[in-house]
Amino acid sequence: MNRWWIYQKERFPLLAHGPLIAAFSACAVSFSSLIRHAPLPGWEMYLTAFVVCLLMFLQLRIADEFKDFEDDSRWRPYRPVPRGLVKLSELRILFIIAAAIQLGLVLWLDPRLVWVLGIAWTYLALMSVEFFCREWLKARPIVYLVSHMGIMPLVDFFGTACEWLPRAGTAPQGLGWFLAASFFNGVVIELGRKLRQPADEEEGVETYSALWGMRRGVTVWLFTLLATLACALMAARSIEFITPVAIGLGAVLLIALAAIFGYAHRGMSGKKIEAVSALWTLALYLLLGLVPIWLKH
Q1: What is the pTM of this model?
Q2: How distant, in Å, are the alpha carbons of 93, 191, 194, 224, 270 from that of 217?
Q3: What fold characterizes domain 15-167?
Q4: Domain boundaries, given as residue ranges, for the chain
Q5: What pLDDT digit, counting tens, does each position of 121-165 carry?
């Protein structure tokens, strides 16, 4: 068990990811309820959304271990799989166990959720084989980024379905801006974790700071924050919560601007950009889901 504890600590730290995924999944359930003016969602909806989403992100990590095994073995032998801490065959079993738990929870809450889960699984499977065009995507980093971030709104859509499908049977109108905010926020996270100072770059590790340069990379990150904000405000408008969202995300945006200045001009570590990305994510999902539903109930 100790080696699995080490694996999660290095590759899927639950203490870091757990709260963000909890906010992510709970927001999806809450937002669906809010936009439909429905009663408070049941605990079973929140539980199913959280566990399925948590395991989905774990499956994404496992899929990456398979997809990147050759590159990791060459350039990053310190990672758990190349150094022999865990085997790919063991991760395959873990993936299947996770899928069985997801399916069991979905059947328990509402069997109709299987098709929604199936959509996310299908997209994950396509991501795992790089949509059958690995070299073409690798040569086009922006297309690669956009194609892989498509999983974010699909997982969020599943989270909303945990509320609307058992109760109403059909998706409510107005989810589009919420799902768009989820997409752009996924880009924020992805860019934020791959911006580094020159001294921190590693050979064979693809980062956006190396690809575009530090200032251009952090500028793109800023624009994705603004795109997320715009979509979040439109989503907040549909649940009559636009002012708190504007104030809350505006405050985090000021922190982000300070981080950008420190990173671009004062040698601040890219880890700070990653930390602000996590703060932004937490604020986004709290303000679009848990905070308004708590105030209204």
Answers
A1: 0.95
A2: 37, 8, 9, 11, 11
A3: Tetracycline Repressor; domain 2 (1.10.357)
A4: 15-167, 174-297
A5: 999 999 999 999 999 998 898 999 999 999 999 999 999 999 999
